Amino acid sequence: MKALRWGLIKQQMLVTLRVRALHVLSLGLFVIQPAVFTAVGMLLSHAAGNAMPDLVYTVIGGGIMGLWSGLVFSSTYDITGDRYYGTLELIVGSPTSLTTIEAIRTLINVLTGLFSLGLAFVAALAIFGYSLQGVNFWGAGISLLLLLFSMWCIGVFLANFLAWSRLSGSFVDFLEMPIAFLCGFMYPIRVLPGWLQTLSGVIPIRWALQAMNESLLGNRDLPFLLTHWAMAVGISLVFLAITGWLQARVHDSIRLSGELSSI
Amino acid sequence: MIKYLLQSLRLYLYQAWLSYHGRYSITSPFGYISSKLGFPFFLMLFFIFMGKFVGYTNPLYIVIGNVLLIPAAGSMSGVTNAIGDERSWGTLSYVLGSPAPRLPIFMGRSLFYILDGFVTAVLGFAIAAGIFHLDMATINFGMLLLCIFLLAITSSGLGFLFGSISLISRDGWIILNTFLSALYILVGVNFPVGSLPSALQTIAFGLPLTRGIMAARLVLAGAGWNAIRPLLAGEVLVGAIYILVGYLCFRLIEKRSLTSGTLDAI
Fold first, then answer.
1. The whole model's pTM is what?
2. A167 and B178 in contact by Cβ < 8 A?
């Protein structure tokens, strides 16, 4: 059983890496688009009369944008690609659940997006002289792990909708910016109006990201970090539970009704 | 001659209808509205809060710029996807194998996207005026509509260029998306082109949209026809060059792929 699972994981990893993650055009998603967002932030900061942009939110935040956009587009492409090439039927018909396969693929997509975040860190350090002095390393490290976990949970959750209908691709693409906007990818959450801050509380990414940014800015307030980590883990687990519940219904809907290839 | 022109016109209008119907007939109202207004709206909010955080005190500049980008983005992605979808559904070979003239076919593909982008931007302005209290009292609406319509037309040339890429690559939309994101910097959407480094300013003025957006901003500030005329003339010229280059590029790639038999190879 273990060998079978590892074989499945290895195979899915290879497929995802070859088809999408290591595709030369993924540079657009993981490098150019985040760089553009960072440049917009820097130019806005310059236009506002600041001598230096905020490195955590404007530069490293660009990497978070790359991580998220990469996840959304790669995950969307995975399913629409399977639908287009006629392999989605084979996956849904196989004894391994679609959620298991999507869980592995989403994990690879999230880990691939780390390249974007890593590049943003390197740019902040090497180009803009970001100082690591005062950074709460353990806080930032734990928060980063929870951020990846939150993104993975959201990615697996959205994959159900993508399998459900070919029209859902536009819905998932549509979520790219609202999540970035609500979670404060490139600005602190406090600049949002109060009601939007409350609304963003249902997204686990927001809690993990806020904890990571605060840790990078040197926050060592343990109760603050623990609260944010607990919220990130708790809400992520809720998303996972809903995913499990949805999966049975999506599978039933598309397999029993034979409507996988319909609209 | 007249018969040929009428035939071309019929083909042009039919292709326009077919292109639009093929793209949106399966879409739900939610899918349509979210794809038209949802992304630009949230992107605009994202930039506004980015600006608020760094102390940029002119959110209306961002609002106007992002609304003006709607017709351009719609027109560009519409034309690119019209060609890319033809390839995806396996019908491109039939279209290119037919003796029908290419110009009305592929220009026709862009017509509805131009109209759609225009209507969406007008709707976007109405929404922005309501939410962000955009003062429309002193605006010459005729000139504003002209600027928006021109932006939709001139950007279709870029659509043809990226559509040509769709002939040789299945990932034309990724390249287009990456390019579209570069427009947030280059064409004066979020901040004036004058605040860019000089090399980027040169690139900006070599692109369609830059002058058109500047003209629309002037109209919104209450300027008259004389103030925007040179900008609109420049926009028409640059846009026409891109449409011509896009069309030639399309024909060249089509010819090469027919000669080498590589149309659907990649």
1. 0.85
2. no
